[in-house]
Amino acid sequence: MTEILAASRADEWRRLDPSRTVLMDLDRGQVVLELAPTFAPELLRNLRTLVRGGWFDGLSINRVQDNFVTQWGDAEGDRPLGAAAVRVTPEFERDWSAELRFTPLPDGDVFAPQVGFVDGFPVAGDRAAGRIWMAHCYGAVGVGRDSPADSGNGSELYVVIGHAPRQLDRNITVVGRVVMGTDLLAALPRGTQALGFYATAAERVPIRRVRFADDLPPDERPELEALRTDSASFSALVEARRNRRDDWYKRPAGRIDLCSVPLPVRKVPAAR
């Protein structure tokens, strides 16, 4: 994998778009989220309204459930949403239309007829039915909701920090993935209440600030780029992980699960 990335061409990488990059500042560091307007445009619009209104500033991470999720929002449930919508049409899946640049994974899947990648995100779908959706892989960012399907409005978000809970696919809107700082979220103390919620306010992890990168001065934006999932180097990386040929592996698996494929992100090289 290291050799493949080192040999990759500059045009096989794409810079993160500041208009769909969200920065969440914690005391211990910064978490960077890349959002997916191709799959969740309405949720992203509502989330931008919340973020621009400073809604998350001063709130907290309230839930860390081992091998599952880290979740944040309004623990007390009394902060007004301002101009943001209370109800948003769920975006659990979308049409599989011709303009989607789908890179298939060859090994199949338990949860869907087809799996692969679109715009750097792991996805699953049913081409015959014309439907496609984002998958709950490690690092996926989902929108918490109550029982009504339209109750997820972006005010409660979570990140998958454990084994991929693919049973949530098409039951919750996935809006993106963490591209930097997953380690900060995964290393937090586990909550001791049911479902991993923190028992007391003192245990909650404060959120200092949440902003879209394009609302910040250029010198406050992280310079990051992701390997394009429609590139030759990405295809080579997938094959290298499917069939490990280094000395340690005595029996290559010959296949790989969707959520086990690495999605490389790096700082933009200084020369560029």
How are the elements arranged and paired?
Blueprint lengths: L1 H6 L5 E3 L5 E6 L2 E7 L5 H12 L7 E5 L4 E5 L20 E2 L6 E3 L9 E5 L2 E6 L4 E4 L5 E4 L13 E4 L13 E7 L1 H5 L18 E8 L11 E4 L4 H11 L22 E3 L5
Antiparallel strand pairs: 1-15, 2-3, 2-14, 3-13, 4-5, 4-14, 5-12, 6-10, 7-8, 8-9, 9-10, 11-12, 11-13, 15-16
Structure commentary:
- By secondary structure, the chain is an alpha+beta fold.
- It has a single domain (17-226), classed as Beta Barrel (Cyclophilin).
- Helix content is 12%, strand content 28%.
- It is built from four helices and 16 strands.
- The chain has helices at residues 2-7, 41-52, 182-186, 232-242; strands at residues 13-15, 21-26, 29-35, 60-64, 69-73, 94-95, 102-104, 114-118, 121-126, 131-134, 140-143, 157-160, 174-180, 205-212, 224-227, 265-267.
- The strands form three sheets. It has an eight-stranded antiparallel beta barrel. It has a five-stranded antiparallel beta sheet with strand order 6-10-9-8-7, with no helix packed on it. A three-stranded antiparallel beta sheet has the order 1-15-16, with no helix packed on it.
- The longest helix is centred in the N-terminal third of the chain and has 12 residues, at 41-52.
- It is globular, with a radius of gyration of 19 Å.
- It starts with a helix and ends in a 5-residue tail after the last strand.
- The mean pLDDT is 97.
